[in-house]
Amino acid sequence: MLEINHVSVKFSADSDVQAVEDVSFVLPEGSKLALVGETGSGKSVLLLAILRLLPETAQTRGDVLLDGKSIWQMKRKELDKIRGAVISYVPQGGGEALNPLMRVGFQVGEPLMEHKGLSRKEAEAKSVSLLKRFHLGDEEALARAYPHTFSGGMRQRAMVAMGIAADPQIVLADEPSKGLDEKRVALVAETFQQLGEKSLLCVTHDLLFAGKISDHICVLYAAQQVEYGPTEKLMSAPLHPYTRDMLRAIPENGMEVDKAGFAPAHTGYENFGCRYRHRCKDCMEVCKKMPPLFTVGDEKVRCWLYADASGTADKDL
Amino acid sequence: MRMRLEQLTKTYKSRNGGGAQFYAVQNANVTLEAGETVGLFGDSGSGKSTLGMMAAGLLKPTSGSIFYEDQLCAFPYRGTLRRNIQILFQHPEVSFNPALPLIKSMTEPYTLYNLPYSKQILVENVERFGLHEEHLHRCPGELSGGELQRAALARLLVLRPAVLVLDEPTSMLDVITQAQMIGMLRDYQQETGASYLFITHNRSLCDWVCDRVYDVEQGNITLEE
Fold first, then answer.
1. B171–A179: do the CB atoms touch at under 8 Å?
2. Alpha-carbon distance B163 to B156, whole Å?
3. Cβ–Cβ below 8 Å for A251 and B173
């Protein structure tokens, strides 16, 4: 089980850039959670923060617990044992993360050599069967090929194969469907549906993709968590105005959108109250104050519209 | 007619196939009227981007010809032709020099074409695309994909192009930014009567945006009924 407790990430450049602000959620064993938000909402940074993969200019607060043990307090040696073996990270981009000078089979099998003590030969043999799980076609030849001969969709699937090579409990995936065409997106979605007992935390900007692979969705906007709930409920009856606007903006739903609305600049958050209020159709006087995360049934939403409907507001906020 | 592609072909020699020719695009005929949005729809690898690159004058066709306002276009495009036909790429990162702060890249069209320029004009321009002055002092690596793509569009429209090749301009963006970009493009089209060649692999977006659609499959282009 992975617990994200009040995590904040700030980049200090000339002016402080708040990338993630006080995000909390729990990823129980075997559950699939999608982190949805627009570009710049902080979802990728949050994913990197979990395994401490952020650059040194990042300042973090809060804590990340793996089965009750803090990942952020771990010594380097302990951390190395977890990365790839217990929690694996599948990076963004159609495979730029693969080493162009090494054969795909070696790279896919590398976590097995690192964590399971397999020899290079054994690992490479195993990597063929890993690739087979993702239906790439002629896997023996592909394992001997170099990454540049792969298409973006193939590289994406090879990276997922690498991610699950050492049989981790938790897979963190960053934008696995970005830039792929519809057929390839369907293949990647299928790949994730085969993860079975493993937990998945997937960052995506594609709501329809999120709907296919997750049981819960967490929506981020301007570094904050604005809605959290079961996938089906969130897709059919979204609570937060931002989630509603997102669903309306999908081409299938008519691409209805307010042309003038944009997220505030990263450095100007403190003057904003509710960060969505400048784009929100339901904006009220009270929205000049930052709303807390209200609990409505099994969902959480950061919007004053639900102040009466909710039993309790999160008192830490 | 704004633009016409006639029997456009691009071939590559495959290196280990004993010099066998590989057709990326084969005998493509595409027409583009003023104020029209024409879609090129196909999977990745089908040749639609190659066709777009040739239309934008960035890639020399193996054979065939391109006409702009019934004038034959010579490769490479120069002068007003270069200015009138612009391209917006799928990956906004490639549109900017990664080592320069955004403001340096954004001033390029003004200096290249001797347009009246002041910092205020620049800031006003980017603000219409939802960017702030603060963004201009960052380097491309410090901006999100959506912000960069809007900056790329802002820079490009300074030149008031008559033809825009849009190579999957929104496939890296979230749905709201995508809908906003489409809205911005539609406003510009209504204002100036510009023509768009819209390359996409998203069926619903394609149907929503385009007046006519060409299907691209393994280098072959056919007009959809």
1. yes
2. 11
3. no
Q: How far apart are CA A66 and CA A60, in angstroms?
A: 17
Which CATH architecture fits A2-86+168-306? Answer: 3-Layer(aba) Sandwich (3.40)
Per-residue pLDDT of chain B (225 residues; tens, 9 = 90+): 999 999 999 998 876 666 678 889 999 999 999 999 999 998 877 889 899 999 999 999 999 999 999 999 998 998 899 999 999 998 888 889 999 999 999 999 999 998 988 889 899 989 888 888 888 998 888 887 888 999 999 999 999 999 999 998 988 788 888 888 898 999 999 999 999 999 998 888 999 899 999 999 988 999 987
Question: What span, in angstroms and rounded, lies between the C-alpha atoms of A1 and A68?
Answer: 8
Question: Which residues lie closer than 8 Å to A115 by C-beta, 6 or more apart?
Answer: A81, A84, A85, A166
Strand partners, A225: A220
Q: Which amino acid belongs to residue B80? A: T
Quote the CA–CA distance of B191 and A227 in Å, as a whole number: 38
Q: B177: which 2 tokens? A: 């930014």
What is the ipTM metric for this complex? 0.76
Dist CA A202 CA A192 (whole Å)? 10
How far is the C-alpha of B200 from the C-alpha of B168, rounded, in Å?
Answer: 5
Q: Where in chain A is the domain with CATH 3.40.50.300?
A: 2-86+168-306
Three-state helix/strand/coil letters over B24-73: EEEEEEEEECCCCEEEEECCCCCCHHHHHHHHCCCCCCCEEEEEECCEEC
Give A312: exposed, middle or buried? Use CB within 10 Å, 0-12, 13-18, 19+: exposed
Q: What is the CATH number of the domain that holds B13?
A: 3.40.50.300
Residue B179 is nearest to which of A15, A207, A257, comparing CB atoms? A257
What torsion do the CA atoms of B93, B97, B103, B106 make, to the nearest 10 degrees?
Answer: -80
Domain region containing B180: 3-223
Instruction: Supply the angle between the helices A120-132 and A152-163 in degrees, to the nearest 10.
Output: 120
Q: What is the pLDDT of residue A167?
A: 87
Determine the residue of chain B that is closest to A254 in CA distance: B208
Quick check: B72 and B4 in contact, CB under 8 A? no
pLDDT tens, A115-151?
988 999 999 999 999 888 877 888 888 899 998 888 7
Q: Give mean pLDDT, residues A183-212.
A: 87
Sorted by sequence, the CB contacts under 8 Å of residue A40 that are 6+ apart come out as A263, A266, B143, B144, B146, B147
Q: Residue B192's pLDDT is what?
A: 94
* Residue B114, min C-alpha distance to chain A (Å): 30
In chain B, which residues have their Cβ closer than 8 Å to the Cβ of A183? 43
Residue B160 DSSP label: -
Contact B153, B160 (CB under 8 A): no
Phi-psi region of A305 (alpha: psi -120 to 50; beta: other; left: phi over 0): alpha
Query: Could A251 and B205 be called an inter-chain contact, meaning their C-beta atoms sit closer than 8 Å?
Result: yes
Q: What is the pTM of this model?
A: 0.83
**φ, ψ for residue B7, nearest 5 deg:** 50, 45
**How many structural domains compose chain B?**
1
